[in-house]
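Problem 3 from the worked examples.
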Amino acid sequence: MDDASGTAGGTAGPASGGAPGLAAVLLPRIAEMAAETVARLTADIPAYRLLPDSVLGGDLVANTEAVLKLFFTTVAEGRAPTEAELAAPVAWGAERARDGVPLEAVLRVYPLGARRAWELAATGPDPVDDPYALVTGLLTFLGEVMPKVAEAYLREQADLDWEQREHGRNLAGVLLAGRPARRAAERYGRTLAERYEVVVLRLPEAPGGATNRILRALRSELDGNPEVLATFKGEGGVLLVPLGPVPPGLRGPTGPDGATRRLLARLDTAAELRCTAAAAVAEDHESIPRAQAEASEVLSLAEDLGRPPGLYRLADLAVEYQLVQPGPARDALARVLAPLEDQPHLIATLREFIAAGYRRADAADALTVHRNTLTYRLGRIRLLTGHDATDPTGARHLAAALTAYGAARRTGA
């Protein structure tokens, strides 16, 4: 039996008065029992077969022998193991966490070892005089050590998750700042992709403390994707999603490979709400800051336009993106709505009418007004701007003006 971590020892002893002859009968067979237990572990549990031979044939067998010896000694003396006696076995469980062995596999060694001890005690060539004392001792020992192993393993796993998360956050920060990150990645034992899709993420609005729950859910999902580098701040974050190499024969920038959309779908499921995100491809590490700037602009544009939650790229909003670039054309378009600035309800009406696909009934419902009120407001917009939102040409012009107007207000230009 190996594996454990933590402190705290037991105080309650076995229900019986001990089994003085037990140690004499079974202690000489500890090496045999340990070897059989480890052999069963490697045969039944794939996770153990992934451990290096030095661990399987060395530490694991030695740790199992030590725990068996502790068990037989405490049972023979009719007492529970002390805190000091459990310290080393419990620490071994934390080592298995760092080895990547699942908790279920770590705990499995204890009932396996206990079963073999019982078989030898009850049916071996030299049965013990008091099998009841052995059963009581087994239950007492397992009740003491297994909860401590589980607690320590989970604590160690949490520390490992935190370390990995911090490593990913630090690497993301270095890359987003445009600084070389390969040396830091080597120090953390991480491998960087050559290409990334930079995803700027906005968490959905949530009541009360639900935002913290959403963040925890997202981080938990990302913990299972260590190749994705992530950094969060406030109600948003930036993800660096690795992309595959450029296919042979292709030149110039290539599009995403679908990994981002699949990841965001899992994040939506974890958060139980749909997030809004924008992405841009960085063909090398040096272009990551530029890709972040592009994705941030696309995300702000999607939000200004009232687009529903989802993933957006520049190609999705190319026309609108071009309209919001600073220049005389954007300023001219923004001035189209200048007559409406002191009547924000008219701007809101125009925005909802466009978002509703120019359908009067849907726009009126979104604004919670009567259709006649909507018609009156559209008439006021036509009168003040000189463009008719119900006419195809006027509608296109007003939609472009609204995009430019929102961008100008956002930048203060």
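Problem 4, a separate protein:
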Amino acid sequence: MKPLRALLCGAASAALAAAGLTALVAGQASGATADAAGLGGRWYAAAPYLMPLDNNPPDASAIMDATGLKAFQLAFVLAPNGGGCSPTWGGTAPVSSDTAVAGTIGSIRAKGGDVSVSVGGYGGTKLGQNCADAASTAAAYQQVITKYQLKAIDFDLEEPEYENTAAISHEIGAAKILQQNNPGLYVSVTTAGTADGTGWFGKQMLNEAKTQGFVPDNFSIMPFDGGFSGAAAQTSALTNFNSVLQSTFGWSAATAYAHEGFSGMNGRSDSGEYFSQADFQTVLDYATSHGMARFTFWSLNRDRQCTPPDNNGTTSGVCSSVPQAAWDFAKYSVKFAGATPPNSPPPSSPPPSSPGGSTCAVAAWSSGAVYTQGNEVSHNGHKWKAKWWTQNEEPGTTGEWGVWQDEGAC
């Protein structure tokens, strides 16, 4: 990736580049409401993540009834596990032949809601890694947009993809092509958060966007799994990320906030941080008072209380590990969108059971243990084999593309 200073080699070039970026930013800002015209307001910016095929998917219709939520961020579209440049759900379910996710989308739209689809995520092989260039990457994503008639898409650019400069160039280039070829498409870009906003790879991604003249509806960071302690650490990271956006794009603080987003994790994070409802309220207040462009979280699959509530001190993909009523955290997204959630939600289905013991012959999985390729553990009555080095990644919560291979029931 070329450094920014090599791109603007003279006063005339700098002026032209600045003028072009200013025009693009102005166009993005003026079109922010129109982008979400399918729902109105900021619903696509408020859509929490939902895995429709993994992690004990909750009933989206029930969440809508209980909270007033109208938008869902469906995750994740990846390259096929066996290689290739065609879109799949989780690396295993081809989008071209999908009926299950299409059914979920249909039920959401039948109730007046809509979805965005998230491409990428943590782990797995991304299309930007497999496809030859930005054009072919965009063509793969266009299949998803066309199949589901999408008005919104999210590029979740993180490990290991964002360490690959060619892959990030393909993803950013594809996002720009999709933005141009699908007028009004809402485009968000999500990446890792650190105490100073985002790390080296996140900053390189922003520089790539600057180089390509690409400005999405927002750049969002995920301030968790990085030593964050509650909302104060998260809002500090958001403030620092605002400065990063200013310095990268030459924006004012207000313009940077208008293109900045927050993507949190409800309850206990993978690294043992805890984020409560009060933390979400504090960050929501920060986001709204600063005119931020997005407020979302990972995930609705986890937005329910474990049994027992503390989940024995482990992180689960199907519950939050904090005391809560079902869909408590979704209500903060509803508030960000400008709606008022009901005070007394209808009864929801019982929360899923927390991970328990099993009768497998191999040792039980431990959150504190380090496992390497080939190690086997037991968890929730199944035997699991590690595909690579891992620690504190719970078997059964990362989908089929994750670190653990399910070897079946004991």
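Solution to problem 4. The radius of gyration is 21 Å. Residues 356 and 380 are 5 Å apart (CA to CA).
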